């Protein structure tokens, strides 16, 4: 059996703690989640937790950052693989349909927004994370428009902000079991809005 090096063991410990934190987030949310339970379910002591994360908020922010980075990587790949705007929109619809099958991370993001209202340290870190993610999404959208020789009917930042608000709002409604949430296709609503914002004269990659 191959022995893991120190760096590999630390990365493995961190990964297991993140998996456990995600499970606790699904079960209880941020406020009710327990560091003791997160560490125990991952197979480590409380000291093992604090060797990798400073606080409960720290591990959930790391979990959210991991999710946002994966989203950006997936969107970048879809843009490079698509041959037209229609093809890209279809791929985006499929991506978010799969993502919203598990609304955990979107709900986690909303929970952090509420927590940031009351906690200055969390607010600063969450703002840094969300600001960077927003800027990256805006850049991806602009790159997609350039690639397909088309343009938007509105400012790219405004389009991204509205898409984010749609996602968060509709996921919360669906998670809460509201009538509107049950009937609404979240991914379809987002891609329909994006399609409306894209000029339709030139939409193919040359």
- Main pleated sheet: none
Class by SSE composition: mainly alpha
What order do the helices and strands follow? HHHHHHHHHH
What proportion of the residues is helical, as a percent range?
over 70%
Looking at the structure, what is the overall shape?
Answer: globular
Secondary-structure arrangement, i.e. CATH architecture of the largest domain = Orthogonal Bundle
Average pLDDT rating: 87
Instruction: Quote the distance from N terminus to C terminus.
Output: 52 Å
Overall tally of domains: 2
Low-confidence residue ranges: none
For the secondary structure, the number of strands is 0
Q: Quick one: CATH class of the largest domain?
A: Mainly Alpha
Radius of gyration over all CA atoms, rounded = 19 Å
Oligomer: single chain
Count, helices: 10
Pfam family, one: TetR_N
Organism: Leptospirillum ferrooxidans (strain C2-3)
InterPro entries: Homeodomain-like_sf, HTH_TetR, Tet_transcr_reg_TetR-rel_C_sf
Protein name: Putative transcriptional regulator, TetR family
């Amino acid at each position: 059996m191959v022995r893991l090096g120190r760096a590999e063991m630390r990365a493995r410990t961190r990964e297991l703690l993140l998996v456990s934190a995600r499970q606790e987030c699904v079960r209880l949310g941020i406020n009710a989640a327990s560091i003791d339970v997160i560490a125990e379910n991952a197979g480590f002591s409380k000291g093992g937790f604090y060797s990798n994360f400073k606080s409960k908020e720290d591990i959930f922010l790391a979990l959210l950052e991991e999710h946002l980075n994966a989203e950006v990587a997936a969107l970048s790949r879809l843009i490079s693989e698509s041959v037209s705007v229609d093809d890209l929109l279809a791929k985006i619809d499929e991506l978010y349909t799969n993502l919203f099958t598990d609304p955990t991370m979107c709900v986690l993001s909303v929970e952090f927004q509420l927590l940031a209202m009351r906690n200055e340290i969390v607010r600063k870190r969450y703002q840094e994370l969300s600001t960077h993610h927003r800027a990256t999404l805006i850049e991806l959208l602009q790159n997609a428009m350039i690639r397909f020789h088309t343009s938007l009917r509105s400012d790219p930042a405004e389009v991204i902000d509205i898409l984010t608000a749609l996602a968060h709002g509709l996921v919360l409604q669906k998670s809460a079991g509201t009538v509107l949430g049950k009937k609404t296709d979240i991914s379809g609503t987002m891609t329909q809005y994006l399609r409306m914002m894209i000029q339709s004269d030139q939409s193919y990659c040359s």
